[in-house]
Every structure is written in structure tokens, then in C-alpha cells.
């Protein structure tokens, strides 16, 4: 993580921006080391037990898994909820570049536990952007401190009565905080039809008195929680509003602009879910490596060991482990660079630089969300495969990661929703300017690799060149086809997202190769780490980035066969 921050995300440049003066590499290292200790010692031990003893509902109340309430108290007291939120509301105001790395650690420790702070982050972002001074004063300090938590139910001087049912509300009811602040989408009487008539409201579990103390219980109640494939410890609530006269809600911003405000929460959550994918993939990789070192079976095919040896000696096991490692490192690098773009978009002193970085960040969000989560399914599946039959047995723990990962491609917008956004808003709208600008930077990386002259550098440059050309071909195809033949464009939307995520991740690992090579030339003594970086970059280029031209062919030439089957023939 620190390598990515230093060499790819350029943390020292971020630290030169207004508001981030104390947030350089030294600060990042101190924060990450403390975060690692907390998650290793407090949160990670809860993951396996909480899957066996999930949250449960009884008479409207939800009791979280054993240990969650105590761990959350330590999380809040440690200031982790406010890490990247404004100091004006009690936060630490650190860059997203640092906060995202801490988020990955928390999610690797326990995906179910981490969902509560993730949703609170989204509620904070929405209130910061669209809330009145009164709403900010009432709720933000308590949310930023972690004393209260937030949900997404996808001077405002007056209140509203809210009625209806919301399903799939993560941490919609729990016992870890004194109050739960629901951000709820609802329609006021007489509002326009469709999405233009949706407003956003704050509906707290407990109403808040003028002195900040908790008042009466609001008319919102949890009537059940779902029984799920994975993330079982995270309570997914069905909330009923208004059974006893109407829940009191407070308008956020203006009436009928709720969908606009909701996307503030959604964009924060989508990036965070991508980080969840990276986190669960890394935990699955760590577990698979440990098992492969311990499990003894069969003699190596090269005769290097004369008796049965740990399976990490076998080429196919090493192929699986390298695939897991390369995918995870590539996506982590991409996410780190995206976070840096976000920080620059909000803090760079130059307006043009802010705008350019915002465009890059917005282009990368669907890649971080879509590619990283789809990647996590492959990696966690490989983790089960490395374990063999023991991976299919719940007691080893490998299956939990596979089950937990599946939701990541679904919530906060499925992969197809991310792909539609990538095609329509992020590519076609401006003629593909942002991906074309990124492709130009890839060409510069390619040139730097060729200057090195080594076989590894040449091979990575070759793969990057072919992948870059494939990406540009698909971008041009999308721009040309979206209006004239939308079925053809959108038939390839998810493959385009996967291609773009693959190429950007591979590009970042190519940059990692260059940085590691330079560090070794400069006398960095951590040669084992740097060599591993270079080997991983070469593997990614050979085995993952090499898929890009085939993906291009399927998108550009294969659109017709996607919709050729008659509907009644399915």
C-alpha cells in the first residue's frame, strides 16, 4: 500500500495541496501501521465466528454477532470513522488515498463489520454536500465520531411524515450505536412522476432534541432481516415507516432533487465496494498461500523434492496463487491512483487540474467497483480451488470468502449498471476523451519500459501496447455505435468495463515495474519485495493483460450474436 502511495498515487504531491500539508508518506505509514494493528487484533478474529453466529432479529430489535458491539466501540473511539472527513466536524481530514487503504484493511478483517462504517461514510458525504446548516449541526459530529451510524434508504424549516417500506437496508437496525440516521428516498404529495419527483430525507431512529440529546423513538421499525448467502453478520433489514402515524423526516436540500443527492452517496459507496472486492481477494490469497505451504501432497514434477512436498511446489498451484496475487495487486494499484485523483480533484490549487482529475476519478469509479468485484469472485473461487476438497468444507474458512464476495457485484449497482454508466456518461458523452487521455499516458509508460531493454520490460511493453490498442478500438466502437446501434454497444458494455479495468490495472503494474526497477537501481535494500513487484507485473502482463485483444474482438465483432437468438427460443 505504501509503495502504491509513494510511486503511483504520488502521496507527496497530494501533501503539497491545501489542507493536506501533514499527510505525506510518513503520516501514511504511521496511520496504516496503527490501522493494521487494530484490524489484526480486534476485528479480524471476529470474521469466522460471526459467520457462524450471524446477526439475529427478535421483536423488532437486531442483535449483532458476538464481539461486534465491543469492536465497534473501539473503532469509533480510535477515530477511524472520521479519518477522511472534515476536521470542522471532528474528523481528521486525511486524503482519500490514505483512507481507502485503511478501508481495505477493515474490509479484509471483516466484510460484514466494515459495512456499517461504509454506509455511514455515504450518509456523511450526502449531508456535507446537500444538508442545511441545521442538519449538519444536528447529525454530522455524531456521525463523524461514530457515535451514531448512517444508512442509505435509497434550514429545511419544516418536517414531513414518511410512510412505506424499504428493503435490503444494510445495518438498518443494530445494537452498536445509540442512534441510526436513515437517509431515505421518498416522494412528497404532488411530486412529478418518475425519478424527477424523488426527494431525500433524514429519518433518525430516535429524534434529536435541540440540545443534541436523544428524544422520542421515531416511527420507523425493523420488521425482519434477510437470510443471505454471505455477509451473514451484517444485518440486512426490512424497515417499515409510518405504521403509527408517520415517521418524522427532515428534507435534505430541495424537494424533487433526491436522486441527485443519492448519487453523492452512491459514488462514495461504489468506490468503497470496489475496495471491498480488493480486500476479500487479498484475504483469500493470504489464506490460500498459507494452506499451500502447509498441505503436503505428491512429488513435484521437476523432481526437485524426492518425496511428497507442500503443494506450493506444484506449477498449477503456483499459477493459481500468482493469478490471485496479480489480480489483487493490479486492482489495489488502480484504486490507489483513483483515490489520488479524487484528492486532487478536491484540493489541487489549479482549477483545470481539479477538473481533469475529477474526470479521471469519475471514469475510474465504475472500473474500481465493477472490475475489482468481479475479480474478487475469480480470486475467492481460486482460493477454494487451492484448498481442494477442504475448500468446500466450511470449517476451513475459504468458502466464506467466496460466499461473501458474491454480493459485491450486486449491491450499490450491479456490474451491468456500472457498465452502462461507463458507456453512456463516461465514454460516449464526450467522445471518449478521458480513456483516450489515459491511453496516451499508457504509451508513455510503454516507451519507458522499452528504454530499459530487459526481456521482462520488453514483454510487458509488448502486452501493454496490444492492450492499449484494444482499449482504444473499443472506445471508438462505443462512441460510434451508442446512438446508431445501441444494442451493439450495450451488448458489449460489461466486457468493455472488464477490458478497461484489466488494461488500467495492468498499466499500473507496469508503472510498478518501472518504480521497483528504479528503486533497486537507487540502492533500495528491500530487494525481495521489489523483485516480487516486478515478477507480479510480468505475470499480469503475460496471463491477464494478454486477454485484452480477445475481449476487443468479442465486443467489436461479436455484438450481433448476443441478440440474434429469438426471445421465444431461450
Describe this structure in words.
- Among the domains are: 2-130, Acyl-CoA dehydrogenase/oxidase, N-terminal domain (Butyryl-Coa Dehydrogenase, subunit A, domain 1), CATH 1.10.540; 148-256, Butyryl-CoA Dehydrogenase, subunit A, domain 2; 414-561.
- The strands form 4 sheets. A 5-stranded mixed sheet has the order 3-6-7-12-4.
- It is built from 20 helices and 12 strands.
- The chain is of the alpha+beta class and 570 residues long.
- It starts with a helix and ends in an 8-residue tail after the last helix.
- It has helices at 2-8, 11-14, 25-43, 46-52, 68-77, 96-109, 111-130, 133-145, 258-294, 315-347, 351-387, 398-406, 415-428, 433-452, 455-484, 486-491, 493-521, 527-543, 548-557, 559-562; strands at residues 56-58, 61-63, 149-153, 159-162, 164-170, 180-186, 199-204, 206-208, 214-217, 220-225, 236-241, 247-252.
- The radius of gyration is 24 Å and the shape is globular.
- Helix 10 (315-347) crosses helix 17, helix 10 crosses helix 18 and helix 11 (351-387) packs antiparallel against helix 13 (415-428).
Count of strand segments: 12
Main sheet properties: 5 strands, mixed
Q: Ranges with pLDDT <50 over ≥5 residues? A: none
Radius of gyration equals 24 Å
Morphology call: globular
Q: Number of helical segments?
A: 20
Structural class: alpha+beta
Q: How far apart are the termini?
A: 47 Å
- Mean pLDDT equals 96
What is the spatial order of strands in the main beta sheet? 3-6-7-12-4
**Helical content class:** 55-70%
* Beta-strand residue percentage: 5-15%
Amino acid at each position: 500500500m505504501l509503495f502504491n502511495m509513494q510511486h503511483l498515487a504520488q502521496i507527496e504531491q497530494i501533501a503539497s495541496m491545501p489542507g493536506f500539508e501533514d499527510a505525506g508518506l510518513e503520516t501514511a505509514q504511521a496511520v496504516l501501521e496503527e490501522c493494521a494493528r487494530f484490524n489484526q487484533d480486534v476485528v479480524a478474529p471476529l470474521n469466522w465466528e460471526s459467520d457462524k453466529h450471524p446477526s439475529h432479529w427478535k421483536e423488532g430489535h437486531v442483535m449483532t454477532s458476538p464481539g461486534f458491539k465491543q469492536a465497534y466501540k473501539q473503532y469509533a473511539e480510535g477515530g477511524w470513522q472520521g479519518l477522511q472527513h472534515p476536521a470542522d466536524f471532528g474528523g481528521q481530514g486525511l486524503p482519500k488515498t490514505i483512507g481507502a487503504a485503511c478501508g481495505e484493511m477493515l474490509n479484509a478483517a471483516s466484510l460484514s463489520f466494515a459495512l456499517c462504517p461504509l454506509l455511514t461514510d455515504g450518509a456523511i458525504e450526502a449531508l456535507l454536500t446537500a444538508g442545511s446548516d441545521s442538519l449538519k449541526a444536528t447529525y454530522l459530529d455524531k456521525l463523524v465520531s461514530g457515535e451514531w451510524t448512517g444508512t442509505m434508504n435509497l434550514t429545511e424549516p419544516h418536517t414531513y411524515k414518511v410512510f412505506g417500506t424499504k428493503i435490503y437496508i444494510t445495518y438498518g437496525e443494530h445494537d452498536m450505536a445509540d442512534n441510526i440516521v436513515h437517509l431515505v428516498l421518498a416522494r412528497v404529495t404532488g411530486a412529478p412522476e418518475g425519478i424527477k419527483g424523488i426527494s431525500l430525507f433524514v429519518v433518525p431512529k430516535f429524534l434529536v432534541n435541540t440540545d443534541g440529546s436523544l428524544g422520542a423513538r421515531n416511527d420507523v421499525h425493523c420488521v425482519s432481516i434477510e437470510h443471505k448467502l454471505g455477509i451473514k453478520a451484517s444485518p440486512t433489514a426490512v424497515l417499515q415507516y409510518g405504521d403509527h402515524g408517520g415517521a418524522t423526516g427532515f428534507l435534505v436540500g430541495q424537494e424533487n432533487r433526491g436522486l441527485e443527492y443519492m448519487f453523492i452517496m452512491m459514488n462514495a459507496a461504489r468506490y468503497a465496494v470496489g475496495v471491498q472486492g480488493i480486500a476479500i481477494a487479498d484475504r483469500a490469497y493470504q489464506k490460500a498461500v498459507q494452506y499451500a505451504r502447509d498441505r503436503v501432497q505428491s512429488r513435484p514434477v521437476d523432481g526437485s523434492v524426492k518425496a511428497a512436498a507442500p503443494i506450493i511446489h506444484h506449477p498449477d498451484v503456483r499459477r493459481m496463487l500468482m493469478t490471485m496475487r496479480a489480480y489483487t495487486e493490479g486492482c489495489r494499484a488502480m484504486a490507489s491512483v483513483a483515490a489520488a485523483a479524487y484528492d486532487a480533484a478536491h484540493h489541487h490549487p489549479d482549477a483545470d487540474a481539479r477538473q481533469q482529475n475529477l474526470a479521471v476519478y469519475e471514469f475510474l469509479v465504475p472500473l474500481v467497483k465493477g472490475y475489482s468485484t468481479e475479480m474478487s469472485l475469480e480470486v475467492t473461487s481460486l482460493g477454494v480451488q487451492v484448498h481442494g476438497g477442504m475448500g468446500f468444507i466450511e470449517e476451513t474458512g475459504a468458502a466464506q470468502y467466496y460466499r461473501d464476495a458474491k454480493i459485491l457485484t450486486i449491491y450499490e449497482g450491479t456490474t451491468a449498471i456500472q457498465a452502462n454508466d461507463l458507456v453512456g456518461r463516461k465514454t460516449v458523452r464526450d467522445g471518449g476523451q478521458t480513456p483516450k487521455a489515459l491511453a496516451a499516458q499508457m504509451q508513455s509508460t510503454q516507451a519507458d519500459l522499452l528504454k530499459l531493454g530487459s526481456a521482462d520490460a520488453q514483454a510487458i511493453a509488448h502486452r501493454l501496447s496490444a492492450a492499449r490498442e484494444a482499449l482504444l478500438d473499443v472506445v471508438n466502437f462505443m462512441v460510434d455505435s451508442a446512438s446508431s446501434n445501441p444494442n451493439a454497444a450495450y451488448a458489449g458494455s460489461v466486457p468493455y468495463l472488464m477490458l478497461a479495468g484489466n488494461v488500467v490495472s495492468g498499466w499500473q503494474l507496469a508503472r510498478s515495474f518501472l518504480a521497483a526497477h528504479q528503486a533497486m537501481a537507487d540502492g533500495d535494500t528491500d530487494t525481495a519485495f521489489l523483485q516480487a513487484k516486478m515478477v507480479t507485473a510480468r505475470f499480469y502482463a503475460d496471463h491477464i493483460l494478454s486477454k485484452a485483444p480477445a475481449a476487443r474482438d468479442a465486443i467489436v465483432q461479436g455484438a450481433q450474436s448476443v441478440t440474434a437468438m429469438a426471445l421465444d427460443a431461450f
